[in-house]
Write a structure and sequence with these properties.
The complex is a heterodimer of chains A (329) and B (305). With 329 residues, chain A is mostly helical. Chain A has helices at residues 2-35, 40-44, 49-56, 59-62, 67-79, 84-93, 99-109, 117-147, 180-215, 218-223, 229-243, 250-256, 262-271, 277-283, 289-317, 322-328. The radius of gyration of chain A is 21 Å and the shape is globular. Chain B has helices spanning 10-35, 38-41, 50-81, 130-152, 160-167, 193-202, and strands spanning 188-189, 212-223, 226-233, 242-249, 264-275, 282-293. Chain B has a five-stranded mixed beta barrel with strand order 2-3-4-6-5. In chain B, strand 1 (188-189), helix 6 and strand 2 form a beta-alpha-beta unit. Classes of the chains: A mainly alpha (329), B alpha/beta (305). At the A-B interface, helix 1, helix 5, helix 9, helix 10 and helix 12 of A face helix 1, helix 3, helix 4 and helix 5 of B.
């Protein structure tokens, strides 16, 4: 019975925390589907692929969205012809590089200046940008050119066949003027469909997260490998995937791991909003397995490599951390 | 651009009605959660999330309302339409005149705004898949259970062992077993766990060091005469809770007081501060004079007050 109670609390906390944002994302998706012309993105996205991806990684500053709400929006953006690389860049960086999350990271870590709190705030944003940019570039360069729209599920495939990248396609829509009822009907139908679709996989992700949380002790994972930076980083990455925290709250959890090296905290803070059990389930509504696997490998490898490098640079520069205090004593 | 569904398969309306019903139910339950303050009462979400839950529920209800109304019109038109169904590819010309029983549209007006926008690739299928609704029954059922707990007066908190897991491993402190120092007055202060930890983190410990204090929280054992007193601090939801801890040292075994692991206790004793062995950080400790079991119920979260 105790385990059932724990499950109910964990499940409902993950589900209801995400629910308002999924509703918001679904409504925006419905409006996008109805209002944005099929050729819009082809007109506004820079023709230079690298520039387009680089700019997309910063879109969260203008359109802040959490990782749950971003998925239905991204699916509609893909259908509207936004290049896949741009979507991946926005989807992965958006939940970190936005004002709300930067502020919450600041609030959580600014009091820990003597343990490298300030460096963590800036490095989180910087690493998120690099990881999302490189991931999007890899997907666009190596995957999209080979497989094209086959990387997407039917519900995310652009309506017009052809390249998702910057081809302008002629819109072939009906010429009849649509009434307000027709427009509202279309918006509400798309919004409810997307809400249902995402909520189902949100619920399944919440089930997985709740079950995992009942068997894993975060403090054990955080502390068992402090002598081994690589293991500490991998452990914190695993924790980020399992805990399924909202990017607005995860900084407070990371800050509570007082005796973990900042590099491992960074791994937790950068990977969590990009990949967790709940997001994995949501990805299945947009991407085919080949793309999901590529995303996972790209994100995990990059976060691991960069944060491991930061671990050694951190000590090299003598930045403050709980562990180098330990060494000095 | 957008899509109309003037021609539908037999499962289309079933799927749409089920979608409207399930989403409407979710909006209603979400609204009840807000109206009865259930998510805060059961420490599932922090109070700041009440408004997003309300807005999410109202937004969903509004979309459901609009969809219900437009669906009603569609059903009406579909009945009036009553002609053969046929398929044609996206963009394919629909070169028939939609005559009904030999009549042409011009011959009678039945509010038939049949815009020819057959963008069939609208990104989702309309087949009726009951498993989708079955999955969403889980959050609906668990939310219903919360309502039942609320009206029945039943508490819902983490199990004792889950709470102890939150407390995590006890840190190694420097120095020997602490003993009470000369007291600073006799008044019993009631600081919060968070206040003592903030004081220790800031280094401004002078006022509190040596004060007599009463604290309450949950018990996570460290040794026979030592335990961690803790509460949880939530930022957004229960899943992101972190412990706020004070180490307690007792003269006798704490279990003699009747206190139990994972349960609430009240501690009266002297506030001191000790360094953590590896990190050199200061943390608050209490040299306890008195430990008594306490019923905390749902008050296991530190609200900073």
């Amino acid at each position: 019975m105790d385990e059932v109670k724990n499950f109910i609390i964990n499940f409902l906390s993950v589900f209801y925390e995400a629910m308002p944002f999924v509703v918001l994302g679904a409504i925006i998706a419905g409006i996008l589907e109805e209002v944005v012309p099929q050729t819009f993105f082809a007109r506004v996205v820079p023709k230079n692929r690298i520039l387009a991806i680089a700019m997309s990684s910063l879109l969260g500053i203008i359109f802040p969205m959490c990782e749950c709400g971003i998925v239905p929006i991204m699916r509609r953006l893909l259908k509207k012809g936004l290049p896949l690389g741009c979507c991946i860049a926005y989807m992965t960086a958006g939940p970190i590089i936005n004002v709300v999350v930067i502020l919450s990271t600041w609030v959580a870590f600014a009091p820990h200046r003597d343990k490298g709190g300030m460096q963590i705030i800036f490095l989180r944003v910087g690493l998120a940008y690099v990881v999302s940019f490189v991931t999007a570039l890899v997907v666009d360069t190596f995957l999209y050119r080979k497989y094209g729209n086959d990387l997407l599920t039917d519900s995310a495939r652009p309506k017009e066949e052809g390249k998702l990248s910057l081809n302008v396609v002629e819109e072939k829509i009906g010429t009849g003027k649509r009434t307000i009822w027709q427009r509202l009907g279309a918006i509400s139908e798309t919004a409810l469909h997307d809400f249902m679709d995402i909520s189902i996989f949100l619920a399944l992700g919440a089930v997985l997260a709740s079950l995992a949380k009942q068997t894993i002790n975060p403090s054990d994972i955080a502390s068992f490998s402090n002598q081994y930076p690589a293991l500490a980083i991998l452990s914190m990455m695993g924790l980020a995937i399992v805990m399924c925290l909202c990017s607005e709250a995860d900084a407070f959890v990371a800050a509570s791991f007082t005796d973990v090296h900042p590099s491992a905290k960074l791994a937790f803070l950068v990977l969590g909003p990009m990949l967790d059990l709940k997001l994995f389930m949501l990805f299945t509504r947009v991407f085919r397995p080949r793309l999901i696997a590529t995303l996972i490998v790209c994100l995990v490898v990059q976060v691991f490599v960069y944060t491991t490098a930061i671990h050694y640079l951190w000590d090299h520069f003598g930045w403050p951390s709980p562990l180098n205090r330990m060494v000095s004593q | 651009m957008a899509h109309d569904h003037e021609h539908h398969g037999e499962h289309y309306f079933l799927d749409q009605i089920a979608t409207v019903a399930v989403c409407g139910l979710m909006a209603a339950i979400g609204f009840l959660m807000w109206q009865r303050n259930l998510l805060t009462e059961f420490n599932i979400l922090s109070a700041q999330f009440n408004v997003p839950v309300l807005l999410g529920s109202v937004g969903l209800a509004a979309v459901v309302g609009v969809r219900g109304a437009t669906l009603w019109r569609e059903v009406g038109k579909s009945k009036a339409h009553g002609h053969h169904h046929h398929d044609h590819a996206p963009g394919e010309a629909c070169d028939h005149d939609h005559s009904h029983d030999g009549h042409h549209h011009e011959q009678h007006d039945h509010a038939h705004d049949h815009a020819h926008v057959h963008a069939h690739d609208d990104g989702h299928d309309h087949g009726f898949a009951p498993w989708r609704y079955a999955v969403l029954l889980l959050p609906l059922m668990l939310s219903g259970l919360l309502l039942y707990y609320h009206f029945n007066g039943t508490q819902l908190t983490y199990s004792d062992e889950a709470l102890i897991r939150f407390a995590g491993k006890a840190q190694q402190l420097e120095g020997d077993t602490p003993e009470a120092k000369a007291p600073k007055g006799t008044a019993i202060q009631t600081p919060g766990l968070r206040e003592l930890n903030d004081v220790a983190a800031s280094g401004n410990m002078e006022y509190w060091d040596g004060q007599k204090a009463r604290l309450e929280g949950l018990l996570s054992p460290v040794g026979d005469k030592e335990f961690t007193l803790f509460k949880l601090k939530m930022t957004c939801c229960a899943a992101d809770s972190v412990p706020i801890k004070v180490r307690i040292f007792t003269k006798d075994s704490w279990s003699k007081s009747g206190a139990q692991r994972g349960k609430g206790v009240t501690v009266v004793g002297q506030v001191q501060f000790r360094k953590v062995q590896d990190t050199g950080e200061f943390v608050p400790i209490i040299v306890a004079e008195e430990v008594t079991p306490a019923e905390l119920g749902n008050k296991i979260y530190d609200t900073g007050n």
